[in-house]
Amino acid sequence: MNFEVSIRPDEGYYVGGTFVFTFQVSPIYPHEAPKVKCKTKVYHPNIDLEGNVCLNILREDWKPVLNINTIIYGLFHLFTQPNYEDPLNHEAAAVLRDNPKLFESNVRRAMAGGYVGQTFFIRCI
């Protein structure tokens, strides 16, 4: 079972953006967490430039009582409350931690379609 989910944050740094995630659900679900990747390149401390997602319930905290809705809520939470303490994109995490205003500017530039450092982001707003 493979499908896509679009997340559209209504608050926070990423408000107005649309971020597409792919879900691959294993035949042994719910005993194994789905594999989730972000198809939209995003400047985010918890999502790397290859689309890997750092969300605890996709790794060590997965339990069979959790479900797809729990994951979608977790993804939404990453956009409303990005976490610099558990990063995949260490540069974005450091900027969020040390200079939130610059982080916000970088997010806006990336979402509008442009460069942040040497990385080009396609418009997602």
TrEMBL record:
Highest taxon in the source lineage: Eukaryota
- Protein name in the entry: NEDD8-conjugating enzyme Ubc12
Q: What is the lineage of its organism?
A: Eukaryota, Viridiplantae, Streptophyta, Embryophyta, Tracheophyta
